Amino acid sequence: MLIRLSNFFFKTLREDPADAEVASHKLLVRAGYLRRQAPGVFAWLPLGLRVKAKIEGIIHEEMAAAGAHEVHFPALLPREPYEATGRWDEYGDALFRLKDRHKADYLLAPTHEEAFTLLVKDIVTSYKELPLSIYQIQDKYRDEARPRAGLLRGREFTMKDAYSFGLTDEQLEQSYLAQRDAYERIFNRLGLDYVIVAADAGAMGGSRSEEFLLPVEIGEDTFVRSDSGYAANVEAYVTPPADPQPYDGVGAPVEFDSPETPTIETLVDLLNREFEHPEGRDWQASDTLKHVVLAVTDQAGERELVVVAIPGDRAVDEKRLEVAFAGYEVTPATPADFAKHPELVAGYIGPVLDGAQILGLEHKSGIRYLVDPRVAEGTVWVSGASRAEVHTRSLVYGRDFSADGVIDIANVRDGDLAPDGSVIQTARGMEIGHVFQLGRKYAEALGLQLLDENGKQQTVTMGSYGIGVTRILAVMAELHHDDRGLIWPANIAPCHVHLVATGKDQIALERAEELASRLVADGVEVLFDDRPKLSPGVKFGDAELLGMPYVVVVGRDAAEGIAEVWDRASGEREKLPIAEVNSWLNAKLGR
RNA sequence: CGGGAUGUAGCUCAGCUUGGCUAGAGCGUCCGGUUUGGGUCCGGAAGGCCGCAGGUUCGAAUCCUGUCAUCCCGACCA
Predict the structure, then answer these.
(1) What is the distance between the alpha carbons of residues A166 and A459, in angstroms, rounded to a whole number?
(2) Does the domain at residues A254-406 carry the CATH identifier 3.90.960.10?
(3) May I ask the CATH class of domain A19-75+110-224+427-477?
(4) What is d(CA A323, CA A333) in angstroms, rounded to the nearest whole number?
(5) What does DSSP say about strands A221-226 and A329-332: parallel, antiparallel, or unpaired?
(6) CATH 3.90.960.10 location in chain A
């Protein structure tokens, strides 16, 4: 394989494009891999396509090894199947919709669950054909509110999406693990230092879901992990319930005046000024209970107020809130809500008024009352007294008040505990893969059923498994570059070696030509800069920008049979007899 | 959707505050010469409804209003 730059479709730019912010975006455009078409939409030039094809090649190999069969669907799909599963509406503005000339609705697929399900329904007629895994590599479309960071969050992006079909939970688990293993092999081959985290499975009606995250600052997901190996997306992190505490020695609740304490901070100040903590330490925000009033609306439009209690040192995490109320719309309570419920005194909300519990379905207010998992039997709290400028201390959960249930929506912090008791750290990550047990939701909606070996009608259970191909390409560029340009790993570089012929001396070009032929004959992919009349500086600059892992310069010493070889990643440069370049390269490439 | 910034040559930008005559630079492109191990140098040339619409003015890239677009932060992102 030989590419001659003298006759190649590319153009390097000396300056960063004005609309690029992140390194991968700047470099891929500057080096002539990509051009912007529209926000979050890119044209692919030959160099970019070659890298993309190499990444896809690795995926194809591992999909085949996992027993998945390749198919290909159109990106343009009709509305009806998405109507049947509810996604035509649920997907909202992120779905690209369009009409044909007959005014029929179409969409540009954001993922292909419906299409795959219907194809399997069409083709598979017996349980004996299951389990089955099929996949495609296809462009996906999502009308992101704000595309950003070049390829990292585009509106068109290439994705490998696989779907598994089985009749039993065991078959689903088996297919899931096969894909999960394939993902590990793919990411290992790419040298990506991924973390597998538990993900939220609730919203799609599935049971088990894991994300492959790359721990990078630029990532948009927050996840937690501990030394014990526990790892979860914050959305899926579960706070271990606190242990019940003995409270025999705790005195009865005491109300105290607390003027001008609208915030937790001012309340803690007042506690420290006026009261001694029973344990002799300072009062802390975590001794207090913060009450948040939410309005929860279900799909039928039924609206209900809910009061949530979390420790005063925590805030509500909006993503965790959404997961906790999946399927409902949640908004802050309005002034009108407070007006309707005089027992909710803003800033002084508490479960108890005058010694009697008021919050809770079974209590006077009738408002559902949920508490953080840290609010365990016997824990002692300071809370509002349901009257302006009065708080209560020594409120014991399980003695003085109780809740309708537990809710886990407080934010997560470094030092919190994992379910296994280990200490977690939080980090940012970029999602590069996702494996998901969908269960029977799609099969049910689209009528994918088969007779089992007992002649009983069974609904098929499905999994879906995605890898962001173009996002991985961008991530690889983020991870592998220096201030001069890209530095691809050899297994995804457009070519193995960038061969530069410099000098006006004809002999250098001839020697370079001979070397190129020998390398090609040996199966090396060669990008050959044979452009005439270009100064060496220009060629060196392009060689470094384009990012082949190895550069061979045949120039000044060509007449003596000497070339210079560069290892871009290590920065090493050495002079070698031209005759030895091939074996040097083979050693570097591990061939 | 909220906040911020920016739209001038193929690219990256200056000019706008304080309106004025043929609208500038660098890079790139084309022509001639020069140079050949770090984006050579010299000379010449092509290339711009100054995002769009309206307004103010004798006169608008510059001031005002509207509008569209792009980028950044946030919200959003099965």
Answers:
(1) 9
(2) yes
(3) alpha beta
(4) 19
(5) unpaired
(6) 254-406
Give me the CA A338–C1' B36 separation in Å, rounded. 81
Question: Closest residue to B37 by CA to C1' distance?
Answer: A536
* CATH 3.40.1010.20 is the classification of domain A487-589: no
Q: CATH 3.40.50.800 residue ranges in chain A? A: 487-589
A463 CB and strand B closer than 7 A: no
Question: Separation of CA A39 and C1' B18 in angstroms?
Answer: 38
Residue A206: pLDDT band with limits 50, 70, 90 = low
B38 C1' closest Cα residue: A537
List the A486 CA – B73 C1' distance (angstroms). 28
Asked if residue A260 has pLDDT above 70, the reply is: yes
pLDDT in tens, A405-459: 888 888 888 888 888 888 888 888 888 999 999 888 889 888 899 988 888 899 9
Strand B nucleotides where any atom sits below 7 Å of a protein CB? 1-2, 11-13, 26-28, 34-40, 69-78
Rounded CA–C1' distance between A525 and B37, in angstroms = 24
Residue A38 (CA) to nucleotide B67 (C1'), in angstroms, measures 20
Closest by CA position to A538, among listed A11, A111, A35, A4: A11
| Residue A131: C-alpha distances to residues A78, A162, A164, A206, A207 (Å) | 27, 13, 7, 18, 18
Which residue's structure tokens are 């479709």?
A: A9
- Give the span between the Cα atoms of A536 and A529, in whole angstroms: 11
